[in-house]
# Entry
Amino acid sequence: LTGSGRWNQAEERAAGPGGKRNEELILPINSSLSVTLHQDQLKTTTSAAVSRDFKEDRIWLNGREENINQPRLQSCLREIRRLAHKRRSGSEEESAPCVLSYRVHICSENNFPTAAGLASSAAGYACLVYTLATLYGVESELSEIARQGSGSACRSMYGGFVQWVMGERDDGKDSLAQQIAPESHWPELRVLVLVVSTERKLVGSTAGMQTSVETSPLLKHRAEAVVPERMREMCEAIRQRDFERFGQLMMKDSNQFHATCLDTFPPIFYLNDISRHIIHVVHCFNAHYGQTRVAYTFDAGPNAVIFCLEQTVGEFVSVLRRCFPPESNGDQFLKGLPAGPASLSEELKMAVDMEPKPGGIQQIIITKAGPGPQLVEDPSLHLLVKDGLPKQCA
# Structure
């Protein structure tokens, strides 16, 4: 099975990232919104198999075996199996109880950097839950299960524009994902993933947000006084396809999210110098045109995600090439959807004038909104071979 999308799945948060009010159930202190990105450019692919011959549950991620007993992973696996038992308790299939007692092997691969602030956990858990649910025949509200692996994963269960409703219940039954609009709603919207670093974050998203909840007064104010109205405005901007409003809200929300990181004690620094230079270039570009033509957002990492309309892609990519010239991977610097050639006016060159930062951006991936997890029918794309081991290990 495969999923892709902020990225299955990949996704990118557009508004409202925050902390958790219940870390065990992964219940947030505020609602949030994201865009699921297209699997043709960014994806997680996951295969799973059960067999009477397997001695234990096992999982491989990007070619490396990982600890299957990780608590959040176990929560998802346990809940899928519980629902499968419940569904088949009245089944006439004699084999059902046996199959459910078999061990499972899982193999997952990302085609984008892991743990670098590009929503790899959201993509991974969304794809995992969808794969296991298909394997065990579970038909349920899967976003609630995915949330128990990674909060953001609940949004990646749907395509297009998705909000994670924080909910109010202590058991989290109302903390679910809802689609605001499908991926076809805004066809001219484009997303540029600017890969600044592929290194793992020094402070993980979960640990960082928990520290923020405990120490940042700004985070509490943001969750209570800012995010609810901003979510309403963002949803309305998406429905109206109002890029000016959409882009400004996104940038303000990203800035405030990172302000809460600085307000955390000790402070958390996700952005680096290149991130700040990208922010500068975006504002100079928009100022030149007197309107918001490009907008940035940063998750828990230095990598930027730029939103713009299709007609702006070529020109802004040319600006990025000028400000952050590729060092040695010119042929791999640009991936995904086509950018199209664009010449820069002298006025625009002066507007975004800065000392070039060679190699500051390692790669640009151009994509768009995409669907939620998808079933892969082609056997050649499966990651596990007949003996239940990953292809590269067989």
